[in-house]
Amino acid sequence: MKITLLGTGDAPGTPTIGCSCPSCTDGKLSGSKSSRTRFSILVQTEQGNVLIDTSPDMRAQLLRENVSHVDGVIWTHGHYDHYGGFAEFYRVQRDVSVYGVKETVDYITNIYFFISADKHYVNLHEPFSLIGLEFSLFEVKHFPEKLPVGVVISDGKHKIVISGDCEIDIPKESIDYMQNPDLFIVDAIVPEHMAVNKHMNSTQAFEMAEQIHAKKTVFTHLSHFYGAHDVECEKYPLGYDGMSFEFD
Ligand SMILES: [Zn+2]
Ligand SMILES: [Zn+2]
Ligand SMILES: [Zn+2]
Prior knowledge:
Blueprint: E1 2-7, H1 22-27, E2 40-45, E3 48-52, H2 58-64, E4 72-74, H3 80-83, E5 96-100, H4 102-111, E6 117-121, E7 128-130, E8 133-139, E9 149-154, E10 159-162, H5 172-177, E11 183-187, H6 202-211, E12 217-220, H7 229-232, E13 244-246
Bound molecules: zinc ion (ZN) (3 copies).
Enzyme class: hydrolase
Pfam family, one: Lactamase_B_2
InterPro entries: Metallo-B-lactamas, RibonucZ/Hydroxyglut_hydro
């Protein structure tokens, strides 16, 4: 199993249009890890490719990672930075299999009615199989979404947990469900000195990682309020676009 962070930015991405802060300035340099496209994660086995969310930057991400076919899409919630790229399937791939809670799947497929989708409604904590892996969803909190979810991935030997867009005070059952991941990919939109709503700052992300006893933690959904990547990664476990993790 290989997990690749396709996009590690927040909704506006870095560089943010019209901004010349240190992070955005660094992000304009070629090859800079401060350059962050919008959120998506690629999960791969020899059997195929699954996307967690369809970033508005999906086309560039799939070309960059040389992905020619997507075997399933799992949506965490109905915010534009997590589904906007679904339209990129237009005339490229038909009958895309999509998974998520009913509210989210219906919301997105109604907007993109012109893309044919094979819809799969998923209940919380009910595992489903794709590309030889087991996936399941748990409830998080992300105002004003009614039922935003995080994702657990298992290959039978390793457990990966993705928080999705997430506030700190999620249900106790979810904290129980997330326990002991080998890798925790977590929303940490801003550094600790900044207040935050709808997401977590770095302190809260570390706190959640500790609550679930994560063996390894990587931050994603990062805003330009962090400094340049190469400076900040001394202090925080920052993900970057194209970062990957392999589990045998
Ligand atoms: Zn900026
Ligand atoms: Zn969101
Ligand atoms: Zn988001």
